[in-house]
Specification:
- By secondary structure, the protein is an alpha/beta fold.
- It folds into two domains: 7-66, no CATH class; 76-233, Glutaredoxin (3-Layer(aba) Sandwich).
- It is built from five helices and eight strands; from the N terminus they run ααββββαβαβββα.
- It has helices spanning 7-28, 55-68, 151-156, 169-187, 223-233; strands at 77-78, 122-126, 132-135, 140-145, 160-165, 192-196, 204-209, 212-217.
- The strands form two sheets. A six-stranded mixed β-sheet has the order 1-8-7-5-6-4. Strands 2-3 form a two-stranded antiparallel ribbon.
Amino acid sequence: MYSRMTWIDWTTLSLIVVLTAFHAAMLGGVFRGEDAIAASASFDLRGLPEGNAPTAVRERTAADRAEADDSPDLPGRFVPSQGKMHSGVWPGDRVPYCPEGQVSNDCYASLPPTSGLHAPVQRSVRLEDGSVTPLPPNPGVYTFDLPKEAVPHLQEHAGVFVGYDCETEACLDTIDALEALVIEELSVGARVVMARFSDLPADTIGLASWTRVDTFPAAEYDAVRISRFIKTHSCRFDPEGFCREDAPES
């Protein structure tokens, strides 16, 4: 006897299909470290009524779109994703910068990095200068150099990195203004980390989020440019839900 499926039946079937795809993708992905996510998962939620898709699936889909968005209207230069794999526990497995014209997933294609291999979560590590920090660092202003292997991980946690390297007093004066700007953005909830970053050329500021980078001389400091970068890219790429109200710890 023929029985026509109801809207509820189709909704249930669509949800089962999406969950099955999610499960298969996760099993087929590569996991390294306590919070690695399969980079290959990609989902189309158009078959589900609004709000019925699992939270993790919605976040993964939104993150996929953000990761691939090469629009020239977004602040910074687009750098294609180099993946989300973990390197070794700090200080092992240091990651070099790619030689010009020889980009691979074993090195960083931009300075500062915008994705790729990164140190896994470590609650407290002692850096080469004796400073102690969690990896990835929590949002805030740091007075010491952060290792480049920490940068993609804070970006994967929906953050923006603001780095600088100064040799002149004029540059240091500019960094005072930069710090005030970052503190203001932090006060309204931006996920941003500011730190010295000696890999940059002298007297340079470098802004980096997942797949976006913008660098310029400190003498060309532009508060509007920097604020727009932070406001646009903080939480824009958020595969692990750090910008939810019930967000996991940083």
